[in-house]
Amino acid sequence: MTTLTVRRGPEFTRILGLGVARGENAVPNEDLIEPINSSDEWIRKMTGIVTRVRANRDTSVIDLSERAALGAIAQAGIDPSEIDAVILSTISFPHITPGGAPVLAERLGATPAAAYDISAACAGYCYGIGQADALVRSGAARNVLVVGAEKLSDFVDPEDRSISYLLGDAAGAVVIGASDTAGIGPTVWGSDGGGAELIRQTSSWLDIRDNRDLPFPTLRQEGPSVFKWASFKMAPVALQAIEAAGVTPEDIQAFIPHQANTRIIDQLVKQIGLPAHVAVGKDIVDSGNTSAASIPLATERLLRDGDAKSGDLALQIGFGAGLVYAAQVVVLP
Amino acid sequence: MALSNDEVLAGLAEIVSEETDIDTAEVTADKSFTDDLDIDSLSMMTIVTLAEEKFDVRIPDEKVKDLVTVGDAVDYITAAQA
């Protein structure tokens, strides 16, 4: 009987390189408060945000992705031709088709890498890491470029008090490849579609097709419900990721959650029971909520500020619209 | 066994005090969470979640807006336990 040949990859993977690109403009709370009848003090109290980064009107998701990816590839020390797959996580690439990943791969000279987008919102970076780890270990790809990129300012409503004022534009990228030692722990991931309406687009494209009087679609959220879900349902997921990696909270040096709200981050630290020595990513204060880009941004910030260092164990967890979530323990590049 | 209104009030006051640093004696049935105790929507969700765990009840998110006073919450929890 004829048997098929199957590929097998290396036993371990790790993050070989990290790169980020923040929107060109720091937008302070003062610039956004009038249409929502709010104040700098209220936004800081409720979210922790002081400024958010937003890109110029003519800067695209692909532009941000390219800048971040070039940094990741340079740190990884590989040639773009050695990338066998490009995974772009975004909810703000403004085309149903084509996806953004093939365009990005072409720009980077990573062709003919497999290239596809994933829509997992604020969990998208951790979803991508989980996929990249599996692709490399299965032998399906030598190196995988994972990019979380958003230009959310294209989908905000200045008069919306639920989510628009939180959002920023940025990209974070990593190259995942083979490693002599384990650098990415098991991904604990899942979804809860019962909460799909908690973070949503105001109108579907078909609604707009059928009613041209509808405004351009923007984002909305049920803030308190999302806060409750993220603060209390995600702590057990984070603990599962720690356990799956065979470590304890004491072994973790950095906690890098999705940058949704500092009060969610603080509550997660409490609920997970992280020790005081753990450095906690809070890039949201200056960058805002950049969805799929927020975890690599916060990682870069911790490393740049010296609060974490290469080789440290970091617990990262993404959660958001869907509802979807994913967590893993990684070794920082 | 279901707790009395007074027992639920005492337990809820502990949760509110833990979340806000307000003295438990200040957390009385007639107090409004927002107007008197200055509890915002996110702190309210934390209090609700901790109350769900402590009293083994479920308080749906859409019900939270109806819990204007501490007494409203005590009544809801007591009824939900029955």
TrEMBL record, chain A:
<keyword id="KW-0808">Transferase</keyword>
<dbReference type="InterPro" id="IPR013747">
    <property type="entry name" value="ACP_syn_III_C"/>
</dbReference>
<comment type="pathway">
    <text>Lipid metabolism.</text>
</comment>
<keyword id="KW-0444">Lipid biosynthesis</keyword>
<keyword id="KW-0443">Lipid metabolism</keyword>
<feature type="domain" description="Beta-ketoacyl-[acyl-carrier-protein] synthase III C-terminal">
    <location>
        <begin position="243"/>
        <end position="330"/>
    </location>
</feature>
<dbReference type="InterPro" id="IPR004655">
    <property type="entry name" value="FabH"/>
</dbReference>
<keyword id="KW-0276">Fatty acid metabolism</keyword>
<dbReference type="Pfam" id="PF08545">
    <property type="entry name" value="ACP_syn_III"/>
</dbReference>
<dbReference type="InterPro" id="IPR013751">
    <property type="entry name" value="ACP_syn_III_N"/>
</dbReference>
<protein>
    <submittedName>
        <fullName>3-oxoacyl-[acyl-carrier-protein] synthase 3</fullName>
    </submittedName>
</protein>
<keyword id="KW-0275">Fatty acid biosynthesis</keyword>
<dbReference type="InterPro" id="IPR016039">
    <property type="entry name" value="Thiolase-like"/>
</dbReference>
<keyword id="KW-0012">Acyltransferase</keyword>
<keyword id="KW-0511">Multifunctional enzyme</keyword>
<feature type="domain" description="Beta-ketoacyl-[acyl-carrier-protein] synthase III N-terminal">
    <location>
        <begin position="116"/>
        <end position="193"/>
    </location>
</feature>
<comment type="similarity">
    <text>Belongs to the thiolase-like superfamily. FabH family.</text>
</comment>
<dbReference type="Pfam" id="PF08541">
    <property type="entry name" value="ACP_syn_III_C"/>
</dbReference>
Automatic annotation (TrEMBL), chain B:
<keyword id="KW-0596">Phosphopantetheine</keyword>
<keyword id="KW-0963">Cytoplasm</keyword>
<keyword id="KW-0443">Lipid metabolism</keyword>
<keyword id="KW-0597">Phosphoprotein</keyword>
<keyword id="KW-0275">Fatty acid biosynthesis</keyword>
<keyword id="KW-0276">Fatty acid metabolism</keyword>
<dbReference type="InterPro" id="IPR036736">
    <property type="entry name" value="ACP-like_sf"/>
</dbReference>
<keyword id="KW-0444">Lipid biosynthesis</keyword>
<dbReference type="Pfam" id="PF00550">
    <property type="entry name" value="PP-binding"/>
</dbReference>
<dbReference type="InterPro" id="IPR009081">
    <property type="entry name" value="PP-bd_ACP"/>
</dbReference>
<comment type="function">
    <text>Carrier of the growing fatty acid chain in fatty acid biosynthesis.</text>
</comment>
<protein>
    <recommendedName>
        <fullName>Acyl carrier protein</fullName>
    </recommendedName>
</protein>
<comment type="similarity">
    <text>Belongs to the acyl carrier protein (ACP) family.</text>
</comment>
<feature type="modified residue" description="O-(pantetheine 4'-phosphoryl)serine">
    <location>
        <position position="41"/>
    </location>
</feature>
<feature type="domain" description="Carrier">
    <location>
        <begin position="3"/>
        <end position="81"/>
    </location>
</feature>
<dbReference type="InterPro" id="IPR003231">
    <property type="entry name" value="ACP"/>
</dbReference>
<comment type="pathway">
    <text>Lipid metabolism; fatty acid biosynthesis.</text>
</comment>
